[in-house]
Amino acid sequence: MSDNPEAHLPPRHSPLPELEESGPTRRIAAPEEFARVQTSPEFAQLRSRFRAFAFPMTVAFLVWYFLYVLLSTYAEDAMSTPLLGHLNVGLVFGLLQFVSTFLITWLYVRHANRSLDPVAAQLRTELEGEA
């Protein structure tokens, strides 16, 4: 038995797929073109739209997260209030952390699809050409 874990593979095996030359090619933009796009109003708009979503949502999530941690630490009586059987306020808040994470992800994907991706695709096409 060989010590080589890849001994059973063909001689020129690569775990990465080969890049196909037959597919659509994109032109490679020059550094000056990237600098021009970076100073364009469209790129500024893209950055602004991203930040308008990301910064407030990050702050809101961190406030919600630290509120949960602080309540768990300093308001034990309130967090251990039973709601239904063994289900208490603290457990519900903990589960809501997961719900809020999925909600923020869904909201970001929706925001990106509507507001960010079209502008980014336009800038990419301008730089690299049609796919």
From TrEMBL:
Residues 1-24 are annotated as: Disordered. Keywords: Membrane, Transmembrane, Transmembrane helix. The chain crosses the membrane at residues 53-75, 87-109. InterPro entries: DUF485, MFS_trans_sf. This is DUF485 domain-containing protein. It comes from Georgenia ruanii.
